[in-house]
Predict the 3D structure of the following.
Amino acid sequence: MDIVLATRNEKKVKEIKRIIEEGGVSVTKIFTLNDFPGCPDVQEDGKTFEENAVKKAVSVSQYTGMTALADDSGLEVDVLNGAPGVLSARYAGDSADDMANLKKLLREMEHVPYEKRRARFACCIAMAYKDTVKTFFGYVEGSIGREPQGKSGFGYDPVFYPEGYDRTFAQMSNEKKNALSHRGKALREFQKYLNEKGLNL
């Protein structure tokens, strides 16, 4: 069976494909929304990552008739009461890019001391096909640096230091980041489910 990723974000697509391939799950072919230009965009108006992920997966599965995998993830900063949260991708506005979101975050945390810069990345992966919807979660604790470091990754990776490491996600290899990341953990839960059920996409 084929699978369609409910996103047009090429950086996210590459990361998800890489994690799935590293996990050894046999997928015949992975499509994205770029392969279905007529597929309507889903308004991500949910209050949680799970609500958004399920909404995207169900909508895309219904449109394509295929098994759909949707990801909703973001950064939660303690001192900002969980923000940016579900607004992570558009924290600085609906048309904001990664750099604009990053600058806004650092500006809001400019005077926050190191010991209060705790944060976490959270991810919900939703799989939808016909009447079946399953969700899988992943989290990684860490802290927010004072300035961007590293050239890899995307989003808030250049300022996020996972707990126990003195390097940001953007300073790590893809393999290292995927082993630690929220998305990697959620996708491994998805892979575990497939293996337990004896499913082969």
